[in-house]
Amino acid sequence: MARVTLATTGTFVLAVALALTLAAPPAICIEFTAEDMESNDSMWALYERWSAHYEVARDAGDKLRRFRVFKETARSVYARHLGDRHYMLGLNSFADMTMDEFRDAFACKRPANGGERHFDITQQVRCG
């Protein structure tokens, strides 16, 4: 019997997922300019454009909370564009999620006891 050990931490998975999604080519990220960052109204218009692009629908209460998160993300992405970077960030489909929400949705979690996960692999069906 072969034994497979899954010792991947949530942090590693999160780092890889963020690297892949945030460094995605601009074609799959919504583009924005300095003018989009100038006022709350222009940021709201950007959020509405982003929502339409990714077909994100939120109820009124959740939309305001998500908008606050989105503004922080947009400002962070824009600030990184001002520096001399060798990579490109953009507003992808996760732009209105908090880091905790992203982790809960996409990162693997270690068992509560901190141990490794393992599964015994057995042949379920004989071939031939």
TrEMBL record:
<dbReference type="Pfam" id="PF08246">
    <property type="entry name" value="Inhibitor_I29"/>
</dbReference>
<feature type="signal peptide">
    <location>
        <begin position="1"/>
        <end position="29"/>
    </location>
</feature>
<dbReference type="InterPro" id="IPR038765">
    <property type="entry name" value="Papain-like_cys_pep_sf"/>
</dbReference>
<protein>
    <recommendedName>
        <fullName>Cathepsin propeptide inhibitor domain-containing protein</fullName>
    </recommendedName>
</protein>
<feature type="domain" description="Cathepsin propeptide inhibitor">
    <location>
        <begin position="47"/>
        <end position="102"/>
    </location>
</feature>
<keyword id="KW-0732">Signal</keyword>
<dbReference type="InterPro" id="IPR013201">
    <property type="entry name" value="Prot_inhib_I29"/>
</dbReference>
